[in-house]
Amino acid sequence: MDAVTHVPEPANEPVLDYAPGSPERARLESALAEIGSSGPVELPHVIDGERVAGTGRRIAVRQPHAHRKVLGHLRNASVKEARSAVEAAKNAAPMWRELSFDDRAAVLLKAADLLAGPWRARINAATMLGQSKTAYQAEIDSACELIDFWRLNVHFARGILEQQPPLNSRGVWNRSDYRSLEGFVYAITPFNFTAIAGNLPTAPALMGNTVVWKPSPTQQFAASLTMQLLEEAGMPPGVINMVTGDGLNVSKVALADEDLAGIHFTGSTPTFQHLWQEVGSNLQRYRTYPRLVGETGGKDFIVAHPTADPDVLRTAMIRGAFEFQGQKCSAASRAYVPASLWKRIKGDLVEITNGLTQGDVTDLSNFMGAVIDDRAFAKHKDAIDRAYATRGIDVVAGGTYDDSVGYFVRPTVLEIKDAADESFRTEYFGPILSVHVYPDAQYDRVVDQMERFAPYGLTGSIIAQDRRVIADATKRLRFAAGNFYVNDKPTGAVVGQQPFGGGRASGTNDKAGAAQNLLRWTSVRSIKETFVPPKDHAYPHMG
Ligand SMILES: NC(=O)c1ccc[n+]([C@@H]2O[C@H](COP(=O)([O-])OP(=O)(O)OC[C@H]3O[C@@H](n4cnc5c(N)ncnc54)[C@H](O)[C@@H]3O)[C@@H](O)[C@H]2O)c1
Ligand SMILES: N[C@@H](CCC=O)C(=O)O
Fold it and tell me: Buried b / exposed e across 42-66, counting CB within 10 Å, b at 16+?
């Protein structure tokens, strides 16, 4: 029973390509048709394994590219449901932490296999319809990244448990006991990645914690399916308690609870800072210091050197800025391009950007869908309108928007004279790329200016051929990005390959899907056992 087992060797889940005629495409199209043709569903809270309708404000979950189509309805959690969720998590804690690691790991390994197989098309289709992702963007998120999170977290967690003190004095045996945190973990997840939503509650759960999970309302459709999948994988009632809605009442209850042991957050910088402040002001209430893990916003950069390959640069800009409508925290939203290169790439960049296909994501020929909701649409519209109204900014591609059918914002390139313009520091979280074109000789000045201009430190790329430039930029931009790319776009980190997260205003850099993150969800106890203990208090020097 107590054998130290080996967990299955992890490997990244292969990305399926959904080419015309492929079996995965047929499965996906049938899942899209099935969801698309069934009426709106109720998206209840799941507390202690029970579906709870709730009494709070009812909110429609819409398809962003066809906003008249409603996928389902949720209700904002009231204080009552928030209390029930916290109580359920606390009650389930002794049972869950007493289960062996292998039992907890088996739930996630089974969930990963279910997602890789029978659940794949359904969750991808839900992510496409609910978050307006193309087939490829859904596949790398809701299938591959989530499967990788679950499999690799088990692998990394096993590695942590194996870390034991290297030294034992004679007659002594030292051990490390990886305890869960004392209390419950509050997981709050963003709209843009089904994988992140699935990882944030399950990573602490793997380490023996029970969780209150509050998904984003605009991701709730896929989140509810993820919850069902976890139940099918054998997750016991009460381990993960999902409450829906805006989270205000959940925070009111959870952040004031003496047993709050941690927050696992991904979302915007202001939301995380607000949660941190609340925890700070409640500090004296808590039994233990809550662990605060937050991955937040970015203003991710591409710096091109005059030696850059123009095709590599253009492709990194288009894919990095516009895939999933620029709604990745890692999306390239500012680029610094030398004048000599800009002359060479501008024509193609503008033509390709203006030709990017956009529309309903069930039409698999589209490169892009819509932005997530009316609020995001309004923010991007304001940013584009401001660009038109500002001297020194040229809207060289895109620059249009239309919300009559869906929340469509055309991929937009702004050529901006002033490197200190606010669009080089503000996260719009949409398909808007600000480009500063600099005289080739001023490369060094530009790198110095951009390194600190935005408050964030999430992702960034250097595009250059000269090795000395790459080496120098890697050093000079060391703290400007937690994920740094050489001759590639700054998006698309793969679990187990490029552990993801950033510093400065971008978060606590605890690297999702890596051992660093899992360590935040365990509180180590050191056990020293002395086999033949001393029976006399005196030391030899006392004579
Ligand atoms: N660094 C990363 O790894 C990463 C990954 C994905 C997204 N992001 C960031 O997330 C942001 C976009 O996501 P979003 O729009 O969902 O962010 P958001 O901050 O608006 O919302 C995130 C979550 O917090 C919830 N929330 C907001 N206020 C709350 C409160 N007081 N109590 C409880 N919950 C509350 C929301 O309902 C949602 O579930 C961008 O800034 C993006 O850069 C970062
Ligand atoms: N990990 C993802 C971004 C997640 C944030 O939205 C990437 O690397 O593109």
Answer: ebbbbbbeeebebebeebebbbbbb
For a mutational test of ligand 2's pocket, the pick from 491, 509, 510, i.e. the residue with the most ligand atoms closer than 8 A to its C-beta, is: 491
CB distance 507 to ligand 1 below 6 Å: yes
Active site (catalytic) residues: 295, 329
- Residue ranges for the chain with pLDDT beneath 50: none
Provide the ipTM. Answer: 0.99
Report the CATH architecture of 300-486. 3-Layer(aba) Sandwich (3.40)
Of 274, 250, 321, the C-alpha closest to 87 is 250
CATH of domain 47-296+507-527: 3.40.605.10
CB of 519 closer than 6 angstroms to any ligand 2 atom: no
Cα of 520 from ligand 2 centre, angstroms: 20
Taking alpha carbons only, the member of 265, 102, 152 closest to residue 515 is 152
Supply the pLDDT for residue 1. 55
Contact status, residue 481 vs residue 505, Cβ threshold 8 Å: no
Q: Where in the chain is the domain with CATH 3.40.605.10?
A: 47-296+507-527
